[in-house]
Automatic annotation (TrEMBL):
The chain crosses the membrane at residues 12-30, 51-71, 77-98, 131-152, 158-177, 198-215, 227-244. This is 7-dehydrocholesterol reductase. One of its GO terms (molecular function) is Delta14-sterol reductase activity. Belongs to the ERG4/ERG24 family.
Length: 359
């Protein structure tokens, strides 16, 4: 078979394998935060992302070890694979939008933003949003390993900066899939629908674009970045992770166990008698401190490869800025509508939107 045709359909095959693993491997049922739009019941989710990730990596390793597929196969067919994922993402997005009733907005708006809020299949065994994030995360990790293998085959060793970048991305993926239940309480699940933005975004954009720091430097020589500088880059990433993970965990415990202290921080709240808002800890630093964490993680990843002169590596943190600034504005509007006067009390107390003392 022509390598370009095989490359085009490679993501389709991998996505099918991940889906089968997700469906058949053991999982735990978790009650989420979002309610069913018709019954009002809290949605339940079957989660096994970490097990699917580990199993997928083991399959990749076995196939490479026995020479069924080259370890750097995903690098070799990267452009054809990207085209295949691009088309698959579009087809999925159209499939999950067009057959369903309009939201009242234009067709283009519905296709981009979606019509269904929280679609689930196979009696809830597969939740569309969790499946999309799982596909993107596992495919990203397989890309990281394959591109690293190509770099090793080319130079006979792996540049420390590239190794650090790969470790950060791997940690990012493993962390997300280890805390799946926490993310059921994030903006994506209670405020977004499934359309091109989320569907194509997870199937084509996430697993390819998040790789851009490695993709754009994998064929460059080791820049001999000093160890102390690599440590600084790792600390930037870890600082960002601490803010993002800490904020999400504090919110998760507040939603599920309102009186529980997190990292020794006892919840401080404001209320109007019906609704309650958390105003201390991570959520006392800024109203979207987790967004700052995401941007810092992206910055650490961009710096780690040791080629700041390569423009492409900066697209990763720039993307987070472009994504999260409008989301912050939309989320503030949504919260102002939901909480009314209480929201005004909150923003008077927590004055900064994302960056404490700056913005």
């Amino acid at each position: 078979m022509n390598i370009y045709i095989l490359g085009f359909f490679t993501p389709w095959i991998i996505y099918a394998i991940i889906t089968l693993l997700h469906y058949f491997l053991p999982g735990r049922w978790v009650t989420g935060y979002v309610r069913h739009s018709e019954t009002g019941d809290l949605l339940k989710y079957r989660l096994n992302g970490r097990l699917v990730l580990i199993t997928s990596v083991l399959i990749w390793f076995v196939l490479g070890y026995f020479d069924y597929v080259a370890f750097d196969w995903l690098y070799e067919i990267r452009w054809a694979s990207l085209a295949g994922a691009f088309v698959f993402g579009l087809l999925f997005s159209l499939w999950i939008v067009l057959p369903f009733p309009s939201t009242g907005k234009s067709v283009l708006s519905d296709v981009f933003l979606g019509r269904l809020e929280n679609p689930q299949f196979k009696k809830g065994t597969i939740d569309a949003k969790m499946w999309l994030y799982l596909i993107g995360a596992v495919m990203l990790e397989l890309h990281v390993l394959s591109f690293l293998a190509h770099h090793y085959n080319t130079f006979g060793s792996i540049a420390p900066g590239l190794m650090l970048c790969a470790a950060m991305l791997t940690y990012f993926v493993l962390d997300y899939l280890s805390f799946e239940k926490v993310h059921l309480y994030t903006y994506d699940f209670f405020a977004e629908r499934v359309g091109i933005k989320l569907g194509w975004g997870c199937l084509a954009f996430y697993p390819y674009f998040y790789l851009i720091a490695i993709w754009s430097t994998v064929n460059l020589q080791n820049p001999h970045t000093p160890i102390w500088l690599l440590i600084c880059y790792a600390l930037i990433f870890l600082m960002g992770w601490s803010l993002a993970r800490g904020a999400n965990m504090q919110k998760y415990f507040f939603k599920t166990q309102p009186n529980r202290a997190f990292l020794g921080i006892k919840p401080e709240t404001i209320t109007d008698g019906k609704k309650t808002l958390l105003v201390n800890g991570f959520w006392g630093l800024s109203r979207h401190i987790n967004y700052l964490g995401e941007i810092l993680m992206g910055t650490g990843i961009a710096l780690s490869v040791g080629h700041p002169e390569v423009f492409w590596v900066w697209l990763y943190p720039i993307y987070y800025i472009a994504l999260l600034l409008p989301r912050q504005i939309d989320d503030d509007k949504r919260c102002a509508s939901k909480y009314g006067n209480l929201w005004q009390v909150y923003i008077n107390k927590v004055k900064y939107r994302i960056i404490p003392y700056l913005y």
